[in-house]
């Protein structure tokens, strides 16, 4: 009993001591907080300037993150959500859990991006990645006409998969089903997530894999391997914009605002390209890391607004299923 | 005593499996099932039934050959049969691709010979992968049936001059009627909820399972009612399978033996050659992808990130806590079932058909209003892992618990042997072999299980499967392969130790 | 006349050894008696083919039989227990003696033998539905159906009461005809009732058979000790 009282007292003391430092809870996806992800460096840098305790909670990938937030609802302990993409923001907005950020930072995105609740922190072009010794097709039609093998992700379980769905829809609209039908015999398989698809590509199971134009940068910078390239399509490449938002229920609204601003500062933006392997939303003063200049740059960028994406998703999914389910 | 404990555990298990589904069901959502969901159900059942039949059809000749042949390395092979089942799905799939994929050994050889290539993608590939993952487990379960045939029966058969055909007719067929339906059911249930294998190797949306529809409902549509409905549909299918299996199952009723030792007759001639062929083929089929996993992982083993080690410790901790919990509960259920409490049998199989995602979501909803999910990550993980592993332990223990009670129940009762002494003097020694196997299997499963951990994961305390998935998600395929190999070694080591204890250091 | 001959017969198991040099004639009624653990059952199991010989030879009518598998030896054996398959009917259990595939079975003959051993009409039952005495009769009936020239009995009636056991031995005597019957027993009364000759197994040796009356009238020291004299 004595031990219990002591323990309880100690706990209360420990909590009181902690309460003096404000805590900012950030809900994010899994790979953000990994040892090799941006999380550790960002936590260190932000804590150094905010006099607070930054705590990350991870919940699978972007889609799982949104599901987690919906499960928790207004009772969530999170102050900031980081890691949704524009295909998910409409659903996220619908929860009514997010507060307006009220910030107007200058960002370097290839398209204009305005959103009252969500701020971008990094972005990338979806692209088919291949080995350099392969002559990549220049558009979807050429890909469909070729006998090249591709591996893609399932739009029902993966955000890149959903991105490809939107890409073809944005580029071809009503003709999207025909493109999917043309691609059907090129698709080796459809994987549940990005990692399985990318892993299979690296093992030689496919000629191309749906990934990002920045993927070759990982191999180049981290592995000193310049054998990978990304294909630029004449229809334009679809964008993935990763965003963050502040929760209305936050008990640290000021700190949350500071964190959103910090994420767009050089200190954070410098970390992202070589940990998240995406383009920083705002190019830091030091510029992009060496190696990024070698990456393919699409001239045309496609992106549906959050509302457009939400509106066409169900139809696009049915078309996709009908075209491939044979 | 055992009946009351069994009833209590069964009630708790039912509450823990169905309660979360009910909680999820009560959330907002439209809960409409679409025609695509029904198509998914159809495909799910077809692939699970084919996978189950194929696994069992391959397992019978292999188990038979292993039961009646003695050769160097046999013990190793029997133990290694535990390995494929323990592989994380994506690791197993990459291993299979290294052999059967476009750039795999088989197709490279076919190309070299100028022959047409074979594709692993499609229904055939799904079944192939499920056979690779589950046939070894089925073999172990069936092999136990062979080993449980009392020596007295074999002696009698020999004295009557039974040839191999007659041993098959009078001993092996009755044994298989007893053992096969349960084994097939277990494989069916595993394949029913299999999701990544089906999707990766299925080749496209035609190969959509109910579990994927659940994923979609939870993650993109946040239609939890629909997710719960789908989960119930899955449980219902499994319930139907339980009914079918128990319709076909016939207790062999071999009666008690006195543990006299006798080897199965090992017939000569073409049977010897075919047994050798079966063993060689199975070894090749299983060893190929495993070897690929080892070769892929070996370079990464030297460059593992530091976060792998605490993750390994966390995974082992979960295993060490969850395995005895699962096996203890399964034993109580198996004994209660053997003593006539029939209704606990189907309940023990219930978690196998449950959707992990729905179970985890339900538990999350239950826990979240009271405590931060991250603070209860360990107990929840242990509990869920134990629940998920319990059906396997139960399947392994049930047949022999039945034999134990039938053969020695009266003797034990007449001696007033009950409670702890009965457990120590009768149950543990008589069931040591299946207990060791069950402990090893559940422990290893716990090491390799990603399960619901993701929903509860804290900043600290990630398990090894989670770290592997993070590594893969960050392009670090080599390190991921290394960590996966580490996981396989840890899981297999745990399995080996428990299994060896069960076999009392002797050959199986 | 045919005989079962053991020559230079030796079995070694750990620190146990059993030797024998003896011959048992066709039609004989032989008891095997001796202290518990001396190797009576081992002797019988070796003749039946369940224990391999370490040395020596075993012949029946001049033919080597020690390399044959149990089912091909010219003999039937009844064990102490577990002589019937519990999942098959009595008639099926008997039918196994004629054809292990149960395809070419003369079911009339099966019923005839059931009649002879007093089990008429019980062919459709499972062993568990029979009394102990009836189970013994069923096992014996199968041995009779197989009609092999040697019948080995490894205390198969030990669990029956004295009257029932005597009845069974009388039934064996009545039905065995020209077969050599070898009976392992620990009960001198069985030997006296049933066997004209007795083999004493003691001190690692199975001795040559002697007339039963003689050996009990003038027992060697090992037998005397066993009998408590």
UniProtKB/TrEMBL annotation, chain A:
One of its GO terms (biological process) is thiamine transport. SUPFAM superfamilies: Periplasmic binding protein-like II. Residues 1-19 form the signal peptide. GO terms for molecular function: thiamine binding; thiamine pyrophosphate binding. Its main location: periplasm. GO terms for cellular component: outer membrane-bounded periplasmic space. It is found in: Periplasm. Belongs to the bacterial solute-binding protein 1 family. This is Thiamine-binding periplasmic protein. Keywords: Periplasm, Signal, Transport. Pfam families: SBP_bac_1. InterPro entries: SBP (IPR006059), ThiB (IPR005967), ThiB-like (IPR005948). It comes from Gemmobacter aquaticus. PANTHER family: THIAMINE-BINDING PERIPLASMIC PROTEIN, THIAMINE-BINDING PERIPLASMIC PROTEIN-RELATED.
From TrEMBL, chain B:
Coiled coil: none annotated. Keywords: Cell membrane, Membrane, Transmembrane, Transmembrane helix, Transport. Gene3D superfamilies: MetI-like. Residues 41-243, 312-498 form the ABC transmembrane type-1 domain. SUPFAM superfamilies: MetI-like. GO terms for cellular component: plasma membrane. One of its GO terms (biological process) is transmembrane transport. CDD domains: TM_PBP2 (cd06261). PROSITE patterns: ABC_TM1 (PS50928). It comes from the Bacteria. This is Thiamine/thiamine pyrophosphate ABC transporter permease ThiP. The lineage of its organism: Bacteria, Pseudomonadati, Pseudomonadota, Alphaproteobacteria, Rhodobacterales. The gene is thiP.
UniProtKB/TrEMBL annotation, chain C:
Residues 1-228 form the ABC transporter domain. It comes from Gemmobacter aquaticus. GO terms for molecular function: ATP binding; ATP hydrolysis activity. The keyword Cell membrane applies. Signal peptide: none annotated. SMART domains: AAA. This is Thiamine import ATP-binding protein ThiQ. The keyword Nucleotide-binding applies. The lineage of its organism: Bacteria, Pseudomonadati, Pseudomonadota, Alphaproteobacteria, Rhodobacterales. Pfam families: ABC_tran. Keywords: ATP-binding, Cell inner membrane, Cell membrane, Membrane, Nucleotide-binding, Translocase, Transport. The gene is thiQ.
């Amino acid at each position: 009993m004595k031990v219990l009282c002591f323990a309880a007292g100690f706990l209360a003391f420990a909590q009181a001591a902690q309460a003096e430092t404000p805590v900012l809870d950030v809900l994010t996806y899994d790979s953000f907080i990994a040892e090799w992800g941006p999380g550790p460096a960002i936590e260190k840098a932000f804590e150094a300037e905010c006099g607070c305790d930054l705590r990350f909670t991870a919940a699978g990938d972007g889609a799982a993150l949104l599901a987690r937030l919906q499960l928790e609802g207004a009772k969530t302990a999170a102050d900031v959500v980081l890691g949704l993409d524009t295909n998910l923001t409409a659903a996220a907005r619908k929860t009514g859990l997010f507060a307006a950020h009220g910030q107007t930072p200058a960002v370097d995105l290839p398209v204009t991006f305005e959103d009252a609740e969500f701020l971008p922190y990094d972005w990338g072009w979806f692209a088919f990645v291949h080995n350099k010794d392969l002559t990549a097709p220049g558009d979807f039609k050429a890909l469909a006409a070729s006998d090249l093998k591709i591996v893609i992700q399932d739009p029902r379980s993966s955000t890149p998969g959903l991105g490809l769905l939107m890409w073809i829809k944005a580029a071809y609209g009503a003709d999207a089903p025909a493109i999917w039908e043309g691609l059907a015999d090129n698709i080796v398989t459809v994987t549940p997530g990005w990692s399985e698809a990318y892993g299979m590509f690296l093992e030689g199971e496919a000629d191309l894999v749906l990934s990002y134009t920045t993927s070759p940068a990982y191999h180049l910078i981290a592995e000193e391997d310049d054998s990978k390239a990304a294909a630029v399509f004449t229809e334009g490449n679809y964008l993935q914009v990763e965003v963050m938002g502040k929760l209305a229920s936050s008990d640290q609204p000021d700190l949350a605002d500071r964190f959103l601003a910090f994420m767009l500062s050089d200190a954070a933006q410098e970390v992202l390209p070589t940990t998240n392997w995406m383009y920083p939303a705002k190019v830091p003063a030091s510029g992009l890391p060496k190696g990024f200049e070698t990456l393919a740059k699409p001239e045309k960028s496609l992106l549906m607004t959050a509302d457009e994406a939400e509106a066409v998703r169900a139809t696009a999914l049915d078309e996709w299923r009908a075209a491939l389910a044979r | 005593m055992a009946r009351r404990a069994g009833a209590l555990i069964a009630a708790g298990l039912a509450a823990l499996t169905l309660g979360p589904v009910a909680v999820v069901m009560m959330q907002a959502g439209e809960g409409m099932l679409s025609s695509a969901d029904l198509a998914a159900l159809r495909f799910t059942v077809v692939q699970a039934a084919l996978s189950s039949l194929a696994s069992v059809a391959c397992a019978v000749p292999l188990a038979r050959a292993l039961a009646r042949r003695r050769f160097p390395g046999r013990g190793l092979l029997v133990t290694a049969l535990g390995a494929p089942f323990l592989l994380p799905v994506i690791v197993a799939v990459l291993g299979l691709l290294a052999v059967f994929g476009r750039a795999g050994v088989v197709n490279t050889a076919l190309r070299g010979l100028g022959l047409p290539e074979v594709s692993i993608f499609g229904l055939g590939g799904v079944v192939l992968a499920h056979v690779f993952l589950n046939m070894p487990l089925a073999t172990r379960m069936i092999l136990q049936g062979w080993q449980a045939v009392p020596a007295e029966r074999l002696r009698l058969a020999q004295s009557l001059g039974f040839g191999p055909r007659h041993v098959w007719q009078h001993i092996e067929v009755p044994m298989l009627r007893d053992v096969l339906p349960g084994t097939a059911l277990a494989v069916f249930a595993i394949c029913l909820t299999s999701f990544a294998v089906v999707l990766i190797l299925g080749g496209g949306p035609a190969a959509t399972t109910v579990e994927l529809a659940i994923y979609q409902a939870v993650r993109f549509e946040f239609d939890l009612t629909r997710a719960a409905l789908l989960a119930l549909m899955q449980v219902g299918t499994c319930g139907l399978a339980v009914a079918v299996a128990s319709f076909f199952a016939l207790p062999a009723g071999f009666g008690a033996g006195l543990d006299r030792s006798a080897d199965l007759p090992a017939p000569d001639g073409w049977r010897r050659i075919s047994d050798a062929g079966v063993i060689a083929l199975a070894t090749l089929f299983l060893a190929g992808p495993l070897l690929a996993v080892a070769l892929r992982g070996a370079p990464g083993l030297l460059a593992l990130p530091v976060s792998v080690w605490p993750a390994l410790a966390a995974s082992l901790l979960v295993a060490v806590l969850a395995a005895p919990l699962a096996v203890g509960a399964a034993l109580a259920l198996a004994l209660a079932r053997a003593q006539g409490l029939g209704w606990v049998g189907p309940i023990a199989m219930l978690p196998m058909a449950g959707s992990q995602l729905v179970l985890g979501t339900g538990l999350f909803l239950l826990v979240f209003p009271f405590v931060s999910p991250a603070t209860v990550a360990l107990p929840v993980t242990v509990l869920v892992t134990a629940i998920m592993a319990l059906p396997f332990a139960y399947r392994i223990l049930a047949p022999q618990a039945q034999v134990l009670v039938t053969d020695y129940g009266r003797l034990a009762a007449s001696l007033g042997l009950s409670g702890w002494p009965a457990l120590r003097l009768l149950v543990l020694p008589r069931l040591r072999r299946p207990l060791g196997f069950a402990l090893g299997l559940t422990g290893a499963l716990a090491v390799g299980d990603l399960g619901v951990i993701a929903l509860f994961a804290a900043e600290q305390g990630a398990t090894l499967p989670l770290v592997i998935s993070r590594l893969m998600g960050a392009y670090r395929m080599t390190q991921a392969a290394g960590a996966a190999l580490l996981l396989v070694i840890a899981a297999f080591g745990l399995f080996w130790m428990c299994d060896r204890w069960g076999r009392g250091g002797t050959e199986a | 006349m045919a005989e079962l001959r053991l020559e230079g017969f030796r079995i070694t198991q750990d620190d146990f050894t059993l030797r024998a040099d003896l011959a048992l004639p066709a039609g004989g009624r032989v008891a095997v008696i001796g202290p518990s653990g001396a190797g009576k059952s081992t002797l019988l199991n070796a003749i039946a083919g369940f224990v391999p010989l370490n040395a020596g030879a075993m012949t029946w009518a001049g033919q080597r039989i020690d390399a044959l598998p149990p089912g091909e030896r010219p003999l039937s054996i009844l064990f102490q227990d577990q002589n019937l398959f519990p999942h098959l009917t009595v008639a099926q259990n008997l039918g196994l003696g004629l054809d292990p595939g149960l395809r070419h079975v003369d079911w009339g003959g099966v019923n005839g033998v059931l009649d002879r051993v007093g089990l008429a009409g019980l062919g459709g039952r499972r062993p568990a539905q029979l009394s102990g005495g009836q189970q013994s009769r069923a096992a014996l009936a199968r041995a009779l159906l197989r009609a092999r020239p040697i019948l080995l009995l490894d205390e198969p009636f030990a669990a029956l009461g004295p009257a029932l056991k005597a009845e069974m031995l009388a039934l064996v005597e009545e039905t065995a005809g020209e077969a050599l019957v070898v009976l392992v027993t620990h009960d001198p009364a069985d030997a006296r009732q049933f066997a004209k000759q007795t083999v004493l197994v003691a001190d690692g040796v199975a001795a040559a058979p002697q007339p039963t009356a003689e050996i009990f009238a003038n027992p060697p020291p090992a037998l005397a000790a066993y009998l408590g004299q």
